[in-house]
Amino acid sequence: MARGDQIYAMREVAGIPYEHHGIDRGDGSVIHYSKQGEAVIKRTTLAAFARGGVVRVKPQPTAFIPSLVIERAESRLGEREYDLFFNNCEHFANWCKTGRRECAQLDDFGLNLERVKLPAATDLVRQAALSAIGKAAGRPSTDESPQKTSELFQTALENVAIATRTLLPAYEQATRDRTTWHQVAQRALGKDREDLARAALYKKVAADKKATDIKDKLSQLSDLQLSLEQNQMFLQKN
Question: Is the pTM above the cut of 0.85?
Answer without folding.
Answer: no
